Amino acid sequence: MKSRNVVRLFFTTLLIGGLSTLITSFFVKNDAYLKFMNPFDWFEILGVVLFFLTLGFVFSLISQMGFFAYLTANQFALSVFRSFWPMIQIVIIAFALFDLIYFRYKSLEGGTITTFILSAIALFVYGFIVAAIKAKETNKTAFIPALFFMVVITSIEWVPGLRTEGGDYAWLMIVPLVICNTYQLLILHRLTEKGAKK
């Protein structure tokens, strides 16, 4: 991939992360805006908007670091484990989903496990759909790596949000992570194809 495409991927993903976090904040952290609505204080609201936009840029950078770290680790694992790597990835996916449910539930006092089960199922189903699209647009062997990236890497990137008190920042973080990861995964082969043609 040419350096121009790398720069384009970086800034586009950065913008997607910022905007998706900002939009999510209207729903998840609407109290941060409401307290400056009556009386209306545009300067404070602008400050809140810039805060969530910047926070989104940070989430985007986490997503991009995870993406390029996975690309490197995947190539290394392929050379070491060879034909066993897809099976190992399936086992790690199962463990990551179990971790999202059981260990999160055990780390919190009280609460219901249903929320954790639903969030893990939602991440898996969404990852399955994205992986199917990736496999359809490239080749069948891309399915498991794409599913691994969407489930396992997204879960690892989500850890800082999961450790916060309450659930606001966990939900505020997962939306841009999922969107940025989806974008990077589905745009990569298009950028590399363009680079190969030129």
UniProtKB/TrEMBL annotation:
It comes from the Bacteria. SMART domains: KbaA. InterPro entries: KinB-signalling_activ. The chain crosses the membrane at residues 7-28, 48-72, 84-105, 111-131, 143-163, 169-188. Keywords: Membrane, Transmembrane, Transmembrane helix. This is KinB-signaling pathway activation protein. It comes from Gracilibacillus marinus.
